[in-house]
Amino acid sequence: MQHIAIISSSVRTGRKTHRVALFFQKYITENKLATTEILDLKEYNFPVFEERLQYQKEPTEQMLDFANRIKQADGVIIATPEYNGGYPASLKNVLDLLYDEWYRKPIGLVTVSGGTFGGSQVMTSLLFTLWKIRAWVAPAKFQVSKVQDSYDEAGNPTDKATTDKIANGFMQELLWCMQAKAKMNKVPE
């Protein structure tokens, strides 16, 4: 079975994006789509970026652990809030920390906002960064508007049927990319 790492990128006090990360962990597990884990950037609490991991003389155990988890994952879901049209520094920090680990890594984007736009404004800057580090972003997006009203603290959606339907389409695209990458990795060069 393939493995998906879910990056919960908000480290903010009172964060709501983590609710959506919890939803995806439950959704993937309940539907037996893959094995999964949440990589909570609040728990990692990385220092501000100074240098890529590959060039650091003494990387921390946490940095090596995070890099290994990304490398071992068949796909990654990035759950990010939109802060003033951009994504949080905690996410930029880990995107820049790694490089080779992102190469052709299938990534699904989940954007979250407290307003009505569902994180749509963060897409441009995040897509550009992921393109620059050579990640493979799945074409389907999962956008959450008014997250505070849409999910409880345990990640349960208020409208489960609709949320599951949208999550299914999103996950099918990500899983397709993961399966395509696995097949391409088996092709002899």
TrEMBL record:
Pfam families, per the entry: FMN_red
GO MF annotation list: FMN binding; oxidoreductase activity
GO cellular component, one term: cytosol
Domain (NADPH-dependent FMN reductase-like) ranges: 4-147
Organism domain of life: Bacteria
Gene3D superfamilies (alphabetical): 3.40.50.360
PANTHER family xrefs: CHROMATE REDUCTASE, NAD(P)H-DEPENDENT FMN REDUCTASE LOT6
Protein name in the entry: NAD(P)H-dependent oxidoreductase
Species this chain originates from: Pontibacter qinzhouensis
